[in-house]
TrEMBL record:
One of its GO terms (cellular component) is cytosol. The keyword Oxidoreductase applies. One of its GO terms (molecular function) is oxidoreductase activity, acting on the CH-CH group of donors, NAD or NADP as acceptor. Belongs to the NADH:flavin oxidoreductase/NADH oxidase family. Its cofactor is FMN. Residues 8-350 form the NADH:flavin oxidoreductase/NADH oxidase N-terminal domain. Keywords: Oxidoreductase. This is Alkene reductase.
Length: 374
């Protein structure tokens, strides 16, 4: 057994996980249409990957305006809740633990995806320059499009949105999820509020970092009141380096990412949130996070810490051994290898990722990756 530090049980909230390998949220755009409903094929995909110590669903929109890509699943209608129950039943039958990622894209959307063809909503009327939305052009076909200038939310609408997060969390429990993860990463709505560039409001939700963290704080409090802090995690994507263009593309540039995200993590600490998940820069040759930041995360936060982004088992194990991480998430390797934990623990070779069926499609590139045959 190699990388055995990753094959050790660990407590997360009220659960004891079997190992430290995480299936991170992975958008695959295969929900049933109309209605954005999770399907039996999706249940099979998650069931195949249920040897992960911890699983998080693909990003799941909490309301219609939260969608920025065709065919992503929602969690705001009774039919969507029923659809997700087939997924959670399948993974629970394998003994796995799964949280739902609660997603609102904010400005990274397009009128074609919005109710009544309206503009997407955001903290301020500032367009996402580098990000793309994805609209359907027919059944199973679509195209990437430039997000338009969004409409700035009113304070009343922000308060209503916090309520949508709480309701989505309630729905996730009804659907059988073991907890929820708030998606505050990758340039989507919560990240837009945190960013001094996307958020230029002059009310209590903008300006100072304290104000820019208010939306996050209110969501954490509202969702925690529903599910309890032990069934709650939050995902961030602090960006320290890379070219300006890469950083804007993947998320949002912060002038002082260390200070911004340690303050954000203190918000989670104050509520006793079970885990923080850090999505690192994941493009080719992306530089690593500074060790000083990882150490500051550990000092600021007493819950579990998950990292993702171009990890190998060896690199992940070293971070856990150094005491800087508790769990390591593998995205693309888990897409291509349903039995990834067994492969990593036994040193078996990995299937390569195929471009086919990465975003949308049927079983090809989704549930047809084989488990390892000795
Ligand atoms: C196809 C695909 C879909 C993704 N969808 C999501 C998502 O819905 N939510 C999210 O927070 N991150 C998403 N990510 C980011 C991954 O969770 C992960 O952070 C990233 O793939 C880096 O890990 P890796 O290098 O092991 O693949 C996605 C990544 C990929 C490749």
């Amino acid at each position: 057994m190699i990388h055995s530090v990753l094959n050790a049980p660990i407590k997360l909230g009220n659960h004891t996980l079997n190992n430290r390998i995480v299936l991170p949220p992975l958008t695959r755009q295969r929900s049933a249409q109309p209605g954005d409903i999770a399907t039996a094929l999706m249940a099979e995909y998650y069931r195949q990957r249920a040897s992960a110590g911890f699983m998080i669903s693909e990003g799941t929109q909490i309301e219609p305006r939260g969608q920025g890509y065709a065919w992503t699943p929602g969690i705001y209608t009774p039919a969507q809740i029923d659809g997700w129950r087939t997924v959670t039943d399948a993974v629970h039958a394998e003994g796995a633990v799964i949280f739902a990622q609660l997603w609102h894209v904010g400005r990274v959307s397009h009128n074609a995806l919005q109710p009544d063809g309206a503009a997407p909503v955001a903290p301020s009327a500032i367009a996402a320059q580098q990000a793309k939305a994805f609209i359907a052009t027919g059944p199973g076909t679509g195209e990437l499009v430039q997000p338009p200038v969004p409409r700035a939310l009113s304070v009343l609408e922000i308060e209503e949105l916090v309520g949508h997060y709480a309701q989505a969390a309630r729905n996730a429990l009804d659907a059988g999820f073991d907890g929820v993860e708030i998606h505050a990463a990758n340039g989507y709505l919560v990240n837009q509020f945190i960013s001094a560039h996307a958020n230029q409001r002059d009310d209590e939700y903008g300006g100072s970092l304290h104000n820019r963290l208010r939306f996050l704080r209110e969501i954490v409090e509202a969702v925690s009141a529903v599910v309890g802090p032990q069934r709650l995690g939050v995902r961030f994507s602090p960006l320290f380096s890379g070219t300006q263009q890469e950083r804007v593309y993947i998320g949002l540039v912060e002038d002082d990412p260390h200070h911004t995200y340690i303050e954000a993590i203190k918000v989670l600490e104050a509520s006793g949130v079970a885990y923080v998940s850090i999505a690192e820069a994941d493009w080719d040759n992306a530089p690593d996070l500074p060790d000083t930041f990882r150490e500051a995360v550990r000092s600021a936060f007493s819950g579990r810490i998950i990292y993702a982004g171009r990890y190998t088992a060896g690199r992940g194990a070293r971070l856990v051994e150094a005491g800087l991480a508790d769990l390591i998430a593998f995205g693309r390797p888990f897409i291509a290898n349903p039995d990834l934990p067994q492969r990593l623990f036994n040193g078996w070779p990995l299937n390569p990722l195929r471009a086919e069926g990465l975003y949308g499609g049927t079983q090809a590139g989704y549930t047809d990756y084989p488990a390892y045959a000795e």
